[in-house]
Every structure is written in C-alpha cells, then in structure tokens.
Design brief:
alpha/beta; TIM Barrel; 6-stranded mixed sheet; elongated
Length: 358
C-alpha cells in the first residue's frame, strides 16, 4: 500500500530530493539536487520506530568482512566535483567505502550498501556532505583554533608556530627539528590534519633539510626573519630535493633588493606567495619597484618652465590599464600659482595613484 506525502513533508523527514533546491546559508546561492540514489519508501533511518534494526534495515547475518561498512551517513546531500546528489555514504577503515543506497538487500530492492551488526549510523537528513577545506595559513597559537576550524568545515590546517610566541604571532613558522617534533607530538590528539612549515632561512641547505626530515611538510620564508635571496634559493633547492612546498612572505621593505631580485632568486621554481604587499608609501613614489606597484611612464618628456602662466602638461600612459590621458604635474602647478588673481584648479590624480617613472 502506497502513501503520498507532500514534498515539504518528505524534505522535513528524509531531506531534499531530485529537483529540490537548497539555499546556502544567507547567500543568494542555491543548490539543486540532480539525482536521488535512495529509494522512495525504502529510506534508511535510525531511531525509535524507524528502519535500521535487526531483520529490517539491518542484515544481522553478515560480518564486517563481507563488505559491511563501519559507518553509514544516511540520506545526505553530497556536493563535490561529481555533482549534487542525495545518497547514503558508507565509511570503512576511516575512508569513504561506497556511495549509493544502504539497507538490507533481503527485504529491499536496489541496496548496494549492506548495513550489518558492526555498522554505526549518522543522520545526514537535511545536511550537506562535502570535501573538507584546507587552510594553508595557520599561526599555531592555541589548540582552541581546532574546534573553530572544524566548525567552519576545515579539516586540514597547514602553517607554523610553537604556541603564543612572538615568532608564531608574526610568522607561520615552526623553527627547527626540536620544535617540529614537539608540535607534532602535541597535535597527535587533535581531530584534524596538521602540517607544519619549517623555517626557510639559512645560507646552506642542511639546516633546512633537517627540518623536513623532522616532519615539516614544507618551508616558509618570511620577511620578519629576513626574506633574503639566499634564503629563497636555499629553501627552493631543498624543496626540489625533498618534493615539498615553499611559501613566502616577500621582502616588502626592500631590505635585500626589489621584486626583480626576488623573482630572480625564485628562478622559475614553484613557490606559494602568501604576501606580496607594497612597501612604505615613500618607497612607492621613489622606486616603483614594489611587487604590487605598476609603473606609469611619461612620454615624451616635457621641460618644466617656471615662466609659463599655466602649468605644463604631458601625455601619460598607465602600464596597468593602458589608459592614455593628459596630466599636469602637481609640482609644476604649485610653482606657477600666481601671487594674485584667480588660481587654477589643481590637477586631478590618477584613479589608481601609481608612481611615475623618473
């Protein structure tokens, strides 16, 4: 005997099904369920008066060795690169085992995940199952960061630190094999994946390599420790040898050169640039060599005369947006303000306010 319920009633009980849309939090983004692998009327649910019990939704005659999963997430919406669909998800040995329809094949059709006596149940109705996020910029200051990350869907944290130390607050670096081993030991009981960056600051490869052998997943070069070209080169050499990642917070104060020197030190090798901010405003105006400072070039140069009654003008082309316009030098304008009479309006600055070339 069949029984009909409304789509709203069905979604409230078993979660959305094919054709239903889900709004993501308070955004204007919606997911539409493309397919439902569960069978209407045969959905598995755990609880008093529900389905998963011996002889009903659970097969009490099969053992774990007979492809019985350790855990089943029931009626959950799966969101990944394969699509958006509703299904039962089976876990075994800590990994995804199968995705499909769970239950007892002795009493239900279309079952490809057999629930047995060794199976735990997680209610997925009305929930979304998706891949865990990876946060690659963590300052390991406190273990309290872990539950916060998990509540945000982060299951892997990569970064550095040794607790509430000054180096940790400023840089994502765990310096040296002793700190690396102690941090890995401290993280053993945390329910999250942890990766540590070693300190990528040395003028030889061995001080860097020993940190990788101690358990670091990569090296970090940070300007607070001195983002020198030597440190960049040595870190990338070790990374190529051990097949690990190098991350960098660039020399934004131009202590060891300009962006061209950093690029030359990288020499076409793979690197993750966390920060490439501009240096101080004065350096921007004088050098135009910061990683984030495009150069505006003036052509042709116009001699600046102090005898003209109006400011001199030049044609400027911005190399960032390729916009050509007529601009007036503010310095020339200030020098030509008449002692009396109407004063000319000051020249307008470029909307991006980039520095001009000498």
């Amino acid at each position: 005997m069949s029984f009909e319920i409304s789509r709203k009633q069905y979604a409230d009980l078993y979660g959305p099904t094919t054709g239903d849309s889900i709004r993501l939090a308070d955004t204007e983004l919606f997911l539409e369920i493309e397919k439902d692998y569960t069978v209407y009327g045969e959905e598995v649910m755990f609880g008093g008066g529900k389905v998963v019990r011996d002889g009903m939704g659970q097969n009490g005659q099969v053992t774990r060795d007979e492809d019985v999963p350790d855990t089943v997430i029931s009626n959950v919406v799966v969101l990944d690169y394969t699509g958006i669909y509703k299904a039962d998800v089976a876990l075994k040995d800590g990994h995804i085992f199968k995705i499909g329809k769970a239950g007892n094949p002795q009493i239900a059709d279309g079952v490809d995940i057999v629930i047995g006596a060794s199976t735990e149940m997680i209610a997925g109705e009305g929930k979304i199952l998706t891949a865990g996020g990876v946060d690659t910029h963590i300052h390991y200051i406190s273990p309290d960061q872990v539950p916060t990350a998990l509540c945000s869907g982060i299951t892997t944290m990569v970064g550095g630190g040794t607790g509430p130390a000054e180096g940790t607050k400023a840089t994502t670096i765990t310096p040296g094999k002793w700190h690396i081993s102690r941090m890995l030991q401290a993280a053993e009981g945390l329910p999250i994946n942890i990766g540590l960056f070693g300190k990528g600051h040395a003028s030889a490869t061995e001080p860097l390599a020993e940190q990788i052998r101690a358990g670091a997943v990569g090296l970090k070069v940070h300007e607070d420790w001195g983002a020198t070209t030597s440190s960049i080169d040595m870190s990338l050499r070790v990374a190529d040898e051990y097949d690990v990642q190098v991350a960098i917070h660039t020399d934004t104060l131009n202590e060891c050169g300009f962006v061209e020197d950093t690029i030359k030190a990288i020499d076409g090798r793979v690197i993750h640039t966390f920060h490439t901010e501009a240096p101080a405003a004065a350096t921007l105006r004088t050098s135009s060599r910061s990683p984030d400072c495009p150069t505006c070039s003036r052509h042709p140069p116009t001699p600046r005369s102090r005898t003209r009654a109006t400011p001199s003008k030049s044609t400027w082309t911005c190399s960032w947006c390729a916009t050509t316009s007529t601009r007036t030098s503010r310095k020339t304008w200030r020098s030509l303000i008449p002692a009396s009479g109407p004063k000319p309006s000051p020249p307008k600055t470029c909307s991006r306010t980039w520095a001009s070339s000498p």
